[in-house]
Design a protein that fits this description.
membrane, transmembrane, mainly alpha, DMT family transporter
């Protein structure tokens, strides 16, 4: 498969921003669902299972409904047998499951702001390492100063956007819980790389299906253990929007699998971060009536865009990323 054309590269940029917006909204939705179910560990994991399970049902129906999409399944099996796709690449769904579980377990306590800071820090640093190691379908994308600067812009931007809330809510408990989204953010880069490898052979729908199947199995195993320890859950809430996390997750995973080969893991990650930050600002303005988004928040959103532009500029010069 040849290198993506200039038109494809340009057209893919807004789609990567949309993928980030989906993650921001998903974190809000899954956090609200976990709170409605009781706010406990088992409630958080239950919210994650519901979100991942609904996504699994949808992506299964869509993938199996078309012979063209189903054709990717034997292609993936063959690629796994002959080593074209390493077997570890099919485990990307575990990273996605961990992200959704982290949303349910931490957002209600530490807030979306701190969650975003931790995810961003993990995702930016891990994306550099994943690209440099050549784990993604685009191969080796060597580290460079512009790529490092672009990643730093993303971390600084989200830290600025969440700064006031971090100062107000910081404690050993929140710092400890922030480790989960930090690790989840690092896993997002690995997930994008692995899903991209699978998608390059079998297509984005089969890659998404594999992602949901593997992630759901891992998530249910942990959920059953948590439920055996603490099964005190509140009844399921009646608000329909609390159950759209799976749809949002499916959209994010499909877009990531389809687009990661276009610009590489780092640029995909930076665009996702920019989409997350900008959407989080909108959520604060629209959903949280008592919140205040000032010049610092707006500047943070601008910084994420600057970081993306730096990475895209570096990608467009030379052939280091091609």
């Amino acid at each position: 498969m040849g290198a993506p054309s200039r038109v494809v590269r340009i057209a893919s940029i807004p789609a990567m921003f949309v993928a980030g917006a989906m993650i921001a909204v998903q974190a809000q939705v899954n956090g609200r669902l976990a709170t409605a179910l009781g706010g406990t560990t088992s409630a958080g994991l239950t919210a994650a299972v519901l979100a991942f399970g609904s996504g699994l049902v949808l992506v299964t129906l869509i993938t199996l409904s078309s012979p063209a999409r189903r054709a990717g399944i034997p292609l993936l099996r063959g690629a796994l047998r002959d080593g074209t796709v390493p077997r570890v690449a099919v485990l990307g769904g575990l990273c996605g499951a961990f992200l959704v579980a982290a949303q349910g377990l931490t957002v209600a306590t530490i807030g979306v702001a701190l969650f975003s800071v931790a995810v961003t820090a993990g995702q930016s640093s891990s994306s550099l390492a994943v690209d440099h190691a050549g784990l993604g379908p685009g191969g080796h994308h060597p580290w460079s100063l512009p790529r490092g600067v672009a990643a730093a812009f993303a971390v600084i931007a989200v830290a600025l956007a969440a700064g006031e809330r971090l100062v107000e809510s910081f404690s050993l408990t929140t710092a400890g819980l922030a480790v989960l989204p930090l690790l989840a953010g690092a896993g997002m880069a690995v997930q994008a790389a692995f899903n991209g490898r699978v998608s390059a052979i079998a297509g984005p729908w089969v890659s998404s299906l594999n992602n949901f199947v593997i992630g759901f199995i891992g998530l249910v195993a942990v959920w059953l253990i948590a439920l055996a320890i603490d099964h005190d859950l509140r009844p399921l809430p009646g608000q329909w929007w609390m159950y759209v996390g799976g749809v949002l997750g499916m959209g994010f995973i499909w877009l990531s699998a389809a687009l990661v080969r276009v610009h590489g893991v780092l640029v995909l990650g930076l665009c996702v971060i920019a989409g997350q930050v900008i959407t989080a600002l909108v959520i604060e303005l629209v959903v949280n009536a008592d919140s205040h988004v000032g010049p610092v928040g707006v500047a943070a959103g601008g910084l994420t865009v600057v970081g993306v532009l730096v990475a895209l500029w570096q990608t467009g010069h030379g052939h280091a990323d091609d």
